[in-house]
């Protein structure tokens, strides 16, 4: 009887041990597969595209000034002097606009004139007022899709100086405004590049590439071609986007 009880106890113990071992194996197998399923790889995909500016702008400045002695200034009077200078600026504006229209710019692409007036007094060694200079500056801004014509403005305005004008141009700025039109294509290219990189990485590690877990489109940047930061100095530009995608890895 005693031997029978001992045998039964050993049998139960063996069954329990086997059950625990099997349970432990199954649990470890479940954890293993769970870890594999949750393994991911994060990759970046780059897309670049060269474009040209589609609109540009440049300011044109022209100035009239007069230097008078203290006595002449007082005799003419400030109002009369300014009136004469504004009249001269008005004539200069007509000449400037004619020069701009000869480049192909429409009147609608040339802004209304902005005028600025300034005066400066000069004094002798004794500190006494000797002369006064009064200046009136006119400014026109050209905004146009004729980007290559904008490049010719500086030369055209320099030629006007032979007509007695004091004229100069400001910084030419070139812009690209069609980014939304090329975004979808560039995003597809960047995602395709990311998938190629992910497949290469997964293949090297002996696992299969799974579905996308998350994706970050990234930020689009537009810079002048050959530059890292400036984006308005050149007609030729480069658009760039880097997409980051996280894929699941399977066994």
Describe this structure in words.
The protein has 251 residues and is α+β, with helices and mostly antiparallel strands. The chain folds into three domains: 1-38; 40-54 and 176-251, Protein of unknown function (DUF541), domain 1 (Translation Initiation Factor IF3, 2-Layer Sandwich); 55-175, Alpha-Beta Plaits, CATH 3.30.70. 42% of the residues lie in helices and 35% in strands. It has six helices and nine strands. Strands 2, 3, 4, 5 and 6 form a five-stranded antiparallel β-sheet that branches. Strands 1, 7, 8 and 9 form a four-stranded antiparallel β-sheet that branches. Helix 3 (78-101) crosses helix 5 (153-160).
Looking at the structure, the CATH topology of the largest domain is Alpha-Beta Plaits
List SSEs in N-to-C order: HEEHHEEHHEEHEEE
Q: Please report the first level of CATH classification, the CATH class of the largest domain.
A: Alpha Beta
Major beta sheet summary: 5 strands, antiparallel
Task: Report the C-alpha radius of gyration, rounded.
Answer: 39 Å
Overall helicity: 40-55%
Any idea what the shape is?
Answer: elongated
Show unreliable segments: 1-37
Itemize the secondary structure elements and their pairings.
Elements: H1 2-38, E1 40-52, E2 55-69, H2 70-76, H3 78-101, E3 114-123, E4 129-144, H4 147-150, H5 153-160, E5 166-169, E6 173-175, H6 179-204, E7 208-216, E8 221-224, E9 236-250
Helix pairs in contact: 3-5
